[in-house]
Design goal:
Chain lengths: 280, 439
């Protein structure tokens, strides 16, 4: 019953996020002169962020005890809230104009994923068997690190979009409305740095949890670990080799997108495998 | 009050004529004084820019100065024969004069459609006249409304959007690649007039380093000295500078490309994937076009920049209809407010005149009553007759004055006002609030 209510709320939020994505994309290609679309976007993103935050709190109340992040659904709600807040910040910055058009589709996907998580893969972690400090560090590191990865990927997508238009000389008269390549590269690097630090924390604490539990690895566990390490390596590359010739501009943008895709695959593997007593 | 405008602009007069008619800061107070002394209750503002000289006057309907007087004044100022001046001046009255001012403020009458500089020039002209004491409530309201409408127009429509000069478009493109310039190196290849214009735009962004390279070193040095910007470098340093530069501006006048694709390729290899924005302003082009395909090189030539200018111009023209609509509404509101103020003053005068006449008759009647009836009942009768007179005057005036105040009235308010003033011999010279009170 509770999951159904939450699914309905998530469906509404995902719909609103899809509408906001369309609006943001429309603004990117045919910007309205009236500030109405900007206000509409801000209101929509505010509703989505608040809705996701309320959903997150609702699950705490529903559980009846202070145990946040009990399942992936919680994590997705938290990520949606944080990403929504980040998009609100982006909308307020003139020099980052257009970046919201790349962040909002990601938000839509995460909310839609939340519906799936609530309906088909709702499986609370067995918190009693987990070390509270390490498991909390693991979850916070993974979710906030993912947020950094999402922002980096959004900025990366926009970098490729702006760069392609500059190269092809498409609609040059409208170019002043978008963020510069340099500003986007800064966003990619900063978000990826944040993501890298937090994902490292998540990865290390995840290994500690496994060692502490002395649990036998289950089918798919090595896949999860392998892909998580691959995602970590991508962010390590992005962060550490950006000063070398090979990892600037377009390559950095592509890497940020590949990094996010790897993280998404890690989460897909996490949801599909059974981890007895594990944090997933 | 009647609003009148006489003037000339880039639409009607050549530059040489405009230069002669321009009213400089020294001549302005004298001209304003002359305008004010041309009649009673005259308000005046003189707008003089490189593209126009316009005299705006508000005066009583049957007063002076008229259009001919304004042209004579202008003729006296610039020394041109009146006939020659009359051929290039335009005259607008009332709503048309107001609409002209609003269009000027909106940039619709400018040489570059939608430009914003004119708004500041109108504001300064108004302030100069106000400081001189030649602005009254009518021109105060008109200019304030026109300036507001000009600002609003640029906010609500796209008339001010897009760049209309090659230099500003080049800078916009640079901003699309780079977020800041205070840590960037700008390389200028060529030292001609076009380069000077382009560098003037980039100078505002405070680039960390500017290098000017020219085949004739003296000209590069001369440009450095004229702009007080950067350093002159020898042509032999070009390849090294290509590696260091972030923005490359070229305009050499060479008939063959100075920077071949191969030369650019060699430079790009050494740049370690740092982006290079190349703005080729030369005709013929200075940079071989195939260089555009090199990674991290963003190459734009004059045609590309001009296409942006043309698109902006097209976009602004597309906004004209909406702008005219906005301005027509703003003018109607402003003129109604001015006329309402005029009517308010007229109503006050008319009431005063009727009560004056009523009082005179009342005193005469009371004297007759006192003579017939004695003083015992006179006080009570006085009060009754006084009240009767006041009521009668109010009732007589109620309907016509109500109709005067209705803005949707078919007949123009100015017509009624003029008729009433003429019929009841009302004085136009009596004035009320100052502009400051009205603000």
């Amino acid at each position: 019953m509770h999951e159904t209510i939450l699914s309905v709320v998530l469906a509404v939020l995902a719909f609103l996020a899809a509408v906001a994505s369309v609006l943001a994309l429309r603004r990117l290609f045919k910007p309205d002169r009236a500030p109405d679309s900007q206000r509409t976007l801000i209101v929509l993103v505010l509703i989505i962020s608040l809705g996701a935050a309320i959903g997150f709190v609702y699950r705490w109340i529903h559980v009846g005890q202070w145990q946040p992040l009990k399942a992936h659904l919680d994590g997705l709600l938290l990520l949606s809230t944080l990403l929504g807040a980040t998009i609100l910040f982006i909308l307020s910055r003139r020099r980052l104009f257009g970046l919201s058009a790349f962040g909002l589709p990601i938000l839509t996907v995460f909310l839609a994923w939340g519906i799936c998580a609530a309906q088909w893969s709702y499986r609370p972690f067995q918190m009693a068997t987990l070390h509270p400090v390490w498991s909390s560090l693991h979850l916070v590191g993974v979710y906030l690190g993912t947020l950094g990865a999402m922002v980096a990927a959004g900025a990366g997508a926009m970098y490729l979009f702006v760069e392609s238009r500059l190269k092809r000389k498409t609609d040059l008269s409208a170019m002043g409305r978008m963020a510069s390549l340099e500003a986007l590269e800064h966003v990619i690097v900063r978000s990826a740095t944040l993501g890298f630090v937090l994902l490292t924390l998540g990865l290390v604490s995840g290994v500690v949890v496994i060692v502490e539990q002395q649990a036998m690895p289950v089918d798919g566990f090595y896949w999860k670990m392998g892909i998580a390490v691959a995602a970590w390596i991508v962010y390590a590359l992005l962060m550490n080799v950006r000063y070398t010739a090979s990892f600037r501009g377009r390559r950095a943008a592509w890497l940020s997108i590949v990094g996010l895709l790897l993280l998404v695959i890690v989460y897909a593997v996490v949801i599909s495998i059974q981890v007895p007593g594990g944090a997933g | 009050m009647r609003i009148l405008m006489v003037g000339l602009s880039h639409r009607t007069a050549q530059l040489a004529l405009r230069e002669r008619t321009a009213v400089g800061g020294d001549a302005l107070p004298g001209m304003l004084d002359q305008l004010r002394s041309a009649g009673e209750q005259v308000e005046a503002v003189i707008l003089s820019t490189c593209n126009r000289t316009e005299l705006y006057v508000a005066r009583p309907p049957h007063g002076q100065p008229d259009g001919d007087a304004l042209r004579s004044l202008l003729s006296g100022h610039c020394g041109l024969p009146l006939e020659q001046l009359s051929a290039v001046t335009i005259e607008r009255q009332q709503e048309q004069a107001a609409l002209h001012l609003f269009r000027v403020c909106g940039g619709l009458d400018s040489m570059v459609l939608g430009e914003t500089q004119i708004l500041g020039q109108v504001k300064r002209a108004y302030e100069a006249a106000a400081n001189h004491g030649s602005v009254g409530p009518v021109l105060h309201r008109l200019f304030q409304d026109a300036i507001k409408a000009g600002k609003r127009l640029r906010h609500q429509t796209g008339i001010g959007e897009g760049r209309l000069s090659i230099g500003s478009v080049a800078l916009d493109l640079a901003r699309q690649v780079f977020d800041r310039f205070d840590d960037k190196t700008l390389l200028a290849l060529g030292a001609g007039e076009m380069m000077k214009v382009a560098l003037t735009h980039f100078r505002r962004e405070n680039p960390q380093r500017v290098c000017i390279v020219n085949r004739t070193a003296d000209r590069a040095l001369e440009l450095v000295e004229r702009l007080h910007l950067g350093e002159a470098r020898a042509m032999a340093d070009l390849d090294g500078l290509l590696v260091e530069a972030d923005v490359l501006l070229t305009c050499t006048g060479s008939t063959e490309p100075v920077l071949t694709a191969e030369r650019m390729k060699q430079a790009v290899k050494r740049r370690r994937r740092r982006p290079l924005l190349v703005l080729d302003l030369g005709v013929p082009r200075d940079v071989e076009q195939t260089s555009a395909s090199l990674a991290n090189v963003y190459l734009y030539n004059l045609d590309d920049l001009q296409s942006v200018v043309a698109a902006s111009m097209q976009s602004r023209r597309g906004e004209l209809e909406a702008c005219e609509h906005h301005l027509a509404q703003a003018v109607a509101l402003s003129m109604t407010a001015i006329q309402q103020r005029d009517v308010g003053r007229l109503v006050k005068q008319l009431r005063g005149r009727f009560h004056e006449m009523g009082n005179a008759e009342l005193q005469r009647t009371l004297r007759l009553i006192a003579a017939e009836m004695g003083s015992s009942d006179a006080d009570a009768i006085n009060r009754v007759i006084e009240q009767h007179t006041t009521r009668l005057i109010n009732k007589i005036l109620h309907l016509p004055l109500s109709r005067m105040r209705q803005p949707e009235s078919d007949a123009p308010l100015a017509f009624y006002a003029a008729a009433l003033r003429r019929l009841f011999d009302l004085d136009e010279s009596e004035d009320d609030a100052s502009p400051e009170d009205q603000a």
